[in-house]
Amino acid sequence: MKNQTRAIDTKLVHAGEPEPRIAGAVTMPVFQSSTFHVDGDVGYHDQRYIRLNNTPNHQVLGQKLAAVEGAEAALVTGSGMAAITSTLLTVLAPGDHLLAQSCLYGGTYDFVTQDLPGYGVQFDFIDAEKPDTWETLKKPNTKAIYVEAITNPLVEVADLDAAVAFAKKHRLVSMIDNTFASPINYRPIERGFDISLHSATKYLNGHNDIVAGVVIGRADMVQRIRHKLNHYGGSLDPHACFLLHRGLKTLALRVRHQNQSALRIAQFLQSSPAVDKVNYPGLESHAGHQRAKRWFEGFGGMLSFELEGGEQAAAMLVERVTIPLSAPSLGGVDSLITIPAKSSHAGLTADQRRDAGIAEGLVRLSVGVEATEDLIEDLRAALDAK
Ligand SMILES: *Cc1c(COP(=O)(O)O)cnc(C)c1O
User: Under a CB-based contact definition with an 8 Å cutoff, are residues 366 and 330 in contact?
Assistant: First the structure.
């Protein structure tokens, strides 16, 4: 297929688009129709209906996303959590056991710890940077291993190749949440993962204006997950499909800018006397730097840091910056700043946060596409203010 040999930038714009274009439309139109004319015999999952995740907007997006990550198939979902939960509930059956990276995204962590046991699924958390400790946690009924490309908010990079090798050795299904890396920086399927998951709310859409998710993998696997999702009802509305489709076209431009900008901001913060510690995979001081350098094409747009002045200084900084908005979520064109202990990790106890390495004054920054110099000047002024 000609699409396969093209660069990711070209695939983002052209892969999966209808040929010939519908009524000549350069941009894929929105098919705002819940139901579609049936001609002849069609099975339940193949009647076109928005909830069945098979309208023209769903299909074109699926083809584009599959091409972008070098996979057979992809499925868009109503949110990142819809992608994650329907996948876990498809892969895991009662009596199965899951190995999952500790320090998961909050929603995933809650689902694994609070909901999966109710479905008869056991789990254990692994230190994803220490593959030699995984074997002892594996059980005869272990079915799958679940990791994240870059973790939140410490932006750790696990031993991802080891997770693939471990899954192959023990015939487990390997799953990865690739949200923080995006396919520009890391393409898990090409490195041997079975399933790549995204909150498309973040980089893939990139404009902080919709919630969406993606499942990418082998065609038969994605088909099974789609059928499960059809029952749960987590489909993406066609208009949100349109926005995601539009966002995807500029993914390469946005993420490459964010990679460069975040690296320069991380270097600036590291050189500032007001800053105690900077977490960014692009810095040599970062524990996952060598792994990220080996596998990633860029280090991403997310970083976190601790200030000399601790919690109080962090609160002042968030108040004083004038460009990044204090808001949860990430990966969009607008820079966003948060204090995880007060937002994404507020549900944990102070002890749990300390065990996870999340200082009370840790600041997380999602670097947008504003001018790097402006963001650095804004941070400098906020750090210097007395
Ligand atoms: C936001 C996020 C999710 C959940 O996605 P939603 O679109 O909010 O449902 C899952 N994983 C990661 C890493 C995220 O950042």
Answer: yes
Q: Give dist(CA 123, CA 265) in Å, integer.
A: 38
Cis previous bond, 183, omega within 30 = no
Q: Residues 323-344: pLDDT tens digits?
A: 999 999 999 999 999 999 998 8
182: alpha, beta or left, given left = phi > 0 and alpha = psi -120 to 50?
A: left
Q: How many whole angstroms separate alpha carbon 89 and alpha carbon 75? A: 15
List of residues 6+ apart from 352 with CB closer than 8 A: none
Q: Which of 105, 146, 203, 280 is catalytic?
A: 105
Burial class (CB in 10 A: 0-12, 13-18, 19+), 256: middle
Give the tens place of pLDDT for each residue, 250-265. 999 999 999 999 999 9
Tokens of 25: 């439309």
Q: Considering only CA atoms, which residue is closest to atom 5 of ligand 1? A: 80
Give the DSSP letter of residue 201.
T
Q: Could you tell me the sign of the dihedral formed by the alpha carbons of 159, 164, 168, 173, in that order?
A: positive
Q: Is 105 in the pocket of ligand 1 (CB under 6 A)?
A: yes
Residues 86-138: tens digit of each pLDDT: 999 999 999 999 999 998 999 999 999 999 999 999 999 999 999 999 999 99
Question: Is residue 202 annotated as a catalytic residue, yes or no?
Answer: yes
**Ligand 1: which of 103, 179, 204, 208 to mutate, judged by most atoms within 8 Å of the beta carbon?**
179
Instruction: Judge whether 51 counts as a catalytic residue.
Output: yes
pTM of the predicted model, to two decimals?
0.97
Specify whether 119 is catalytic: no
Question: What is the C-alpha to C-alpha distance for residues 216 and 69, in angstroms, rounded to an integer?
Answer: 8
- Separation of CA 214 and ligand 1 centre (Å): 10
Query: Is the pLDDT reported for residue 189 higher than 80?
Result: yes
Cα-to-centroid distance, 345 and ligand 1 (Å): 14
